[in-house]
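Dear H.,

Thanks for agreeing to be a second pair of eyes. The structure we're designing against is below in token form, covering all 129 positions.
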């Protein structure tokens, strides 16, 4: 709650996941989350792969001048409800690596896990069970 306004704020509007190989990353995330990603060519060295979404948007982004995958930057938690174990079980077969297996945060906040995606980004999963 913002003490000045008394209002809660949604802190995420959009996030982008840097990739080195759009097709490899697209295949990885489609396999792990059983979804389809729409790739747009925005220039000779700029591609964006949009995840289906309702509120907070997400995209894979390829542009060698501005986006570089990393394993030590900001950690984005992807919604893996109802049970993150389903997605986690697909990580290694899709070309990623599980870093922290499913563990409970606490009864109120559910569960989390950390992984490296196919591009070397450290990412996380969250679910309530």
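And this is the sequence the design step returned. I haven't edited it by hand at all.
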């Amino acid at each position: 709650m913002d003490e000045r306004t008394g209002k809660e704020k949604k802190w995420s509007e959009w996030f982008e996941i840097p990739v080195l190989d759009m097709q490899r990353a697209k295949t990885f995330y489609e396999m792990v989350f059983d979804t389809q990603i729409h790739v747009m060519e925005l220039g000779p060295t700029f591609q964006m792969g949009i995840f289906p979404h309702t509120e907070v948007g997400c995209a894979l982004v390829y542009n060698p001048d501005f986006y570089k995958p990393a394993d030590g930057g900001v950690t984005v938690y992807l919604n893996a409800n109802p049970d993150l174990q389903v997605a986690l079980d697909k990580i290694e077969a899709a070309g990623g690596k599980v870093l922290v297996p499913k563990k409970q945060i606490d009864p109120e906040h559910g569960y989390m896990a950390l992984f490296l995606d196919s591009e070397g980004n450290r990412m996380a999963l969250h679910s309530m069970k």
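Two observations from my side: The chain has a mean pLDDT of 94. Residues 104 and 111 are 4 Å apart (CA to CA).

Warmly,
E.
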